[in-house]
Amino acid sequence: MNPRVYDRIYGSATALCSATSILFIFVIGLVLLTYSYPSIVVNGIRFFTTVTWNPDLSGAVTTLNGFKTMSNASYGILVFVTGTLITSALALLIGVPVAIGIAVFLTEVAPPKLSAVVSFLVELLAGIPSVVYGFWGFLVLGPFLLQTFEPFLSEHLYFIPVFDGPVYSSGLLASGIIVALMIIPIIASISRDAMARTPKELKEGGRALGLTDHEVTTKIVFPYAKSSIFGSIMLGLGRALGETMAVAMVSNSAINELPKTAFYPINTMAAFMAQSLDSAFTDPSGMYVHSLVEMGLVLLAITMIVNVLARFLVRQGFISGAETVVRV
Amino acid sequence: MNHIKNVSKKKAVSAGTAAIVVVAIIVVAAIGVYLTMVHSQNGGTTPSSQSSGTSFQSSTVTQTASQTSTTTTGLPATLPPETISETGSTLLYPLFNLWVPNFTSMYPSVKINTAGTGSGTGISSAETGTVQIGASDAYMSNSQIAQYPSILNIPLAISAQGVFYNIPGIPNTMHLNLSGPVLAGIYNGSITYWDSPQISELNPAAASLLPHQLIIPIHRSDGSGDTFIFTQYLSFSTPSWNKSIGFGTTVSWPSIPNAQAALGNGGMVQAAQQNRYSIAYIGVSYLNNAEQAGLGYAYLENRAGNFVNFSPENIQAAANAMVPNTPKDERISLIFAPGADSYPIINYEYAIVSKNQPNADVALVIRTFLTWAVLSQYGNSPYFLNQVHFIPLPQSVVQLSEEQIAEIGAQ
């Protein structure tokens, strides 16, 4: 057969594959919108401003704005949005410095053999299922934080406002630390690849001009790989926002309560959706399911905003290295 | 530079090939799964064109079998080859796993898949028809029944729930007395210390042992039949709880910063073990685990004002008090039963089944399995129920369940 025919098949097959991603986004968006429509109408803006989440499963079914709901139901996602943002911020705060440290060590400091071994281990970490992280967090990290680390913070660092108060729960810190552990391999391995692509000529030139090792890293490698490192952080943030299972296991599943110190329980949107779906199906009015779907829609929107913002920052040149590939 | 570029290009190409291979594998696997599903469905429908013959045959077999053995059990001698699925309550899941191998050894042509996914999933899967049997610790509410009038709630056994605590310093031989209003106070945050007067008032003998420590109330984070029956006990015994919180497989727990949440009964045991001064509600099928974890359990105040434990006799006493009230559709709470010895938190474990099954063979298999499950010489025998600390259905309820089972037919 004419080799061009193969090329055509090759071209159309790959095009078809990429079309599925557009289709998926479209279908998921459409499903989320239609399923959450009753919740959007009934809950309105209170959905974002209310702390109380009460499906009122033992109440009576009433009709509100044309949709069935339970008489005393109140759906407010403020606790879960706050929890999601706090967990992700804490995870970035802990994870980014460590991950960049790993990447610098692997590309600039470690001898090649050691680097190969550590790189392999880091990539192995990325492959651990989140439920396994959750187990570790539930059995080891949570009790350690609650019994040892948090009392220490509360006793000695009480002048910092977030550590000023009684130790109630390890949920907030444990969630942040677990998610940090999960995003470190992602950020580290992508940053390492980006840094490793820094042309040797540039680094050698820097050394010839008298730069020390760490100056080569900060003045040549970082600027060169800046956009990719930023991209890896955004990818890590995406993972952090959507992390479900591990958080569900360690967060202590706060409900109806906003954290006032670092020693409070917490809950994220993704974890709460996973925990509640079962009960949602027992709501005779169906509003529980609609509200959970709207929560999913909000989570999708937050993730999209983060991605778009990241791309915008890179486009505008706020964050641009010699390499302009951003993997988001 | 050129050299570097070439290398990266090669790498990119190989990564691309790898990605295509991975995608191809996933697509092939998905198609495979789809085909198996279609095939297994056809396994029900394709032979059903021939099977209308076999099903007729088998129903005649059933008739002769039931004619010969009506006095013993009424179960058919053989069943048509069918696969049915069960999903739902994690509390019932261990019992189903004990039942199914025994049942299928009696009827080798039948295959039953079981899954522990939660009572809510059990109910909704049975409603939508994705499984034939949904398992639930909670019965369906009136409004749910109004929505799905063809769904039956069939009790299979009686279960109970204990209230456990982790208080170092209280010996395991001693059991705290707790009442519904005190538990409601603990879970709504109005009773915060173990040595609160409300608690020591109920426990004059243990008053000196109660520590001045914050109580850590633990509740389930997932949707749970255990939450349903526990909050029902609080609702029925404490009007203010009923008004403000109510009951359900999840409720809007009052905000208490040191409250803990755990996933599943196993998670409740684990969380109670890890947190000193905690309190937790746990199904009796986890009694052995809870005792191994060093947890103590409370005597609970019943409607008569006595403090009782969940001994089989006290569960039986509560069942005896409530069973006569069981309506024909068997949807009833057994919580907070009257009677001097009645344990206050017991419940029917339900099979949620649609009256309208896809065909007569499936309906026959379901009827046979459920009948087998409720009969005292088979599924309700102590051999099975003792392993999960359930108690058998009283004879009058077996009869009601059998009447409901008889309603299961083809569309």
Q: Specify which chain pair forms the largest interface.
A: A-B, 46 and 44 residues
Q: Whole-number radius of gyration of chain B?
A: 26 Å
Element pattern of chain A in H and E: HHEEEEHHHHHHHHH
First-last Cα distance of chain A: 40 Å
Main beta sheet strand tally, sense and closure of chain A: 2 strands, antiparallel
Overall helicity of chain B: 40-55%
Shape of chain B: globular
Radius of gyration of chain A, CA atoms, in whole angstroms? 24 Å
Low-confidence runs of at least 5 consecutive residues of chain A: 323-328
- Listing every helix as H and every strand as E from the N terminus to the C terminus, the arrangement of chain B reads HEHEHEHEEHHEHHEHEHEEEHEEHHHE
CATH architecture of chain A: Orthogonal Bundle
Q: Note the overall shape of chain A.
A: globular
Protein architecture, described:
The complex is a heterodimer of chains A (328) and B (411). Chain A is mainly alpha-helical and 328 residues long. Chain A has helices spanning 3-43, 46-49, 78-109, 112-126, 130-156, 171-196, 200-208, 213-242, 245-250, 269-280, 287-315, and strands at 53-54, 61-64, 67-70, 74-75. In chain A, strand 2 (61-64) and strand 3 form a beta hairpin. Chain A is globular. Chain B is of the alpha/beta class. Helices cover 46% and strands 16% of the residues of chain B. In chain B, strands 1, 2, 3, 4, 6, 7, 8, 9 and 12 form a nine-stranded mixed β-sheet that branches. Chain B has a three-stranded mixed β-sheet with strand order 5-10-11. Chain B has a two-stranded parallel sheet with strand order 13-14. In chain B, a hairpin with a 5-residue loop joins strand 10 and strand 11 (307-308). Chain B is globular and about 65 Å long. The A-B interface holds A 14, 17, 52-61, 74, 138-139, 142-143, 146, 166, 168-169, 197, 199, 201, 248-249, 252-257, 260, 263-265, 275-282, 284-285 and B 1, 4, 8, 20, 23, 117-121, 123-124, 138, 141, 143-144, 146-147, 221-224, 235, 246-261, 263, 267, 270, 274-275.
